[in-house]
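Troubleshooting entry. The earlier prediction with glutamine gave an output that would not parse, so I re-checked the input for stray whitespace and re-submitted. Clean input:
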Amino acid sequence: MAVGVLALQGSFNEHIAALKRVGVKGVEIRKPEQLQSVNALIIPGGESTSMAKLAEYHNLFPALREFVKIGKPVWGTCAGLIFLADKATGQKIGGQELVGGLNCTVHRNFFGSQLQSFETEISIPEIAAKEGGPPSFRGVFIRAPGILEVGPEVQVLADVPAPPEKYAKSDFDVESLKDNAGSEKKVIVAVKQGNLLATAFHPELTQDTRWHSYFLKMVNEPNKEEASSSTSLSSEDPPKYDLPVYQQG
Ligand code: GLN
């Protein structure tokens, strides 16, 4: 199996290294025709406006849209999530082209600027049920986007509390987020829709490879997803998840 990693800009090397840790070869993708040689694609984090400009320059958008449309698995992390979203807000003046396909609205720098980057434990019931290991995951958020709204066909895999005071530096009015049935406001940070997976954080910057192996299952077992909720925890010894590769000083 060959998994392509869009290698225009951003953390593509880190994804290739993470794929290697789960025994899969990652192939750098820079040209439209290279997409024909891979079964799946990861669109990494980076800077979505720059990445979009480079993708436009290399005439990649039509091929990327086709890849999504024919049902090949695609995982977008951070800027990659913005790429996959049908709608993005908070973009730079002039906006940026999107690949689209993922029925959601993303706010580009929901969690603020580089200075507001942070790490936090997030609850990942679906991933833990399929991949074993602890029920939470160390989320590394770097100038991270947030998912404001999703369509009915989108499965929410993780969300985080969004108390307005915590995101005071965000250019998004967090007060305007919908309350979840009267409880605290939450912002969605990981979703799945058919062949598409998207995370606002960076699993490739941690040693925990469960998101990568979850994505590989989407490649190997594309039709098994509906059975997921009944999957029990793996009886094998869960691998050790230790420190993230990326650590704030
Ligand atoms: N918010 C950034 C953007 O607009 C993405 C940040 C990231 O990928 N780490 O591109």
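This one parsed fine. Residues 2-224 form a domain with the Rossmann fold fold (CATH 3.40.50.880).
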